[in-house]
Specification:
globular; Extracellular Endonuclease, Chain A; 276 residues; alpha+beta; seven-stranded antiparallel beta sheet
């Protein structure tokens, strides 16, 4: 009873801090990104390790070439801190990251690659997702529409399957690139998200290439094999996890019947989110 009363007496900001400290002490949830065996290769860009994720930062595009992290059921089902919504320059990036003013009045939103909601179990990990090293220019329709749907669907899969390894990043056209801000932040034409359910009894994977634009098509229409995304990105996903034969069988094809999709959420996106 004493603990419950103490929590009720905390202010909202104090409660967020208390939750963050609680989860920071739980290594099983707060330091999952300390392992590097599920990071993609080759690692051509500088790698930066944070408490809640790892990223490779590309100076030419002023955003991550990829972000990677584990999302497990404990991250999602425990107490949550409040969303901060405070975007800031990442002073860890040796060459300097993009800044808030690069995005201001640009016509593009600041799109998370590691979603804030995936790291809401700790104030520290939540704040890390708002570093501009984790941000990419997204259209309003993409960020608040199909990308949002994919983020929410991925959290559903993490709850169903206990743990997922996730790698996301931008995709660029070689021609006709658009840039924003004084730091010339490149605008992606699309984004990829590669998801691995790595736990027994069945290891399986699914990947997406999502256009940086409005879409009325269901998520299933954007499913790709990992091999196809590797061809588009030049990356090798999960190469340290499996033997060559197992890696080939997982990455060459996707069985959509093994993945559930929320049709009501798709309808909400088409009828509501896309029209905001």
């Amino acid at each position: 009873m004493g603990i419950v009363v103490a929590i009720l007496l905390l202010s909202k900001s104090s409660l967020d801090s208390w939750i963050g400290q609680l989860y920071d002490r739980q290594d099983s949830t707060a330091t999952s990104s300390s392992s590097t065996f599920y990071l993609p290769g080759p690692q051509n860009d500088p790698i930066y390790q944070y408490k809640g994720f790892t990223l490779a930062y590309n100076e030419k595009t002023e955003q991550p070439s990829w972000v990677a992290y584990e999302l497990n059921i404990d991250h999602l089902n425990g107490p949550k801190v409040s969303r901060t919504d405070y975007f800031k320059e990442d002073l860890n990036i040796k060459t300097g990251s993009a800044t808030y003013y690069d995005y201001k009045n640009s016509g593009y939103t600041k799109g998370h690659l590691v979603p804030a909601a995936d790291r809401a179990y700790s104030l520290k990990t939540m704040e890390e997702t708002f570093l501009l090293s984790n941000i990419s220019p997204q259209t309003y329709a993409c960020n608040g529409g199909i990308w949002r749907e994919l983020e929410e669907q991925t959290r559903d899969w993490a709850r169903e399957n206990r743990s997922l390894y996730i790698v996301s990043g931008p995709l660029f056209s070689k021609a006709n690139l658009t840039y924003i801000g004084a730091n010339q932040v490149a605008v992606p034409q699309a984004f990829f998200k590669v998801i691995l359910d790595h736990l027994a009894p069945e290891v399986r994977a699914i990947a997406f290439v999502i256009p940086n634009d409005v879409s009325d098509r269901p998520l299933q229409k954007y499913v790709h094999s990992i091999d196809e995304v590797e061809e588009k990105t030049g990356l090798d996903f999960f190469y340290e996890l499996f033997t060559d034969n197992l890696e080939d069988s997982i990455e060459q094809q996707v069985d959509l019947e093994k993945w559930t999709f929320d049709y009501k959420r798709y309808q909400t996106r088409v009828n509501n989110w896309n029209n905001r």
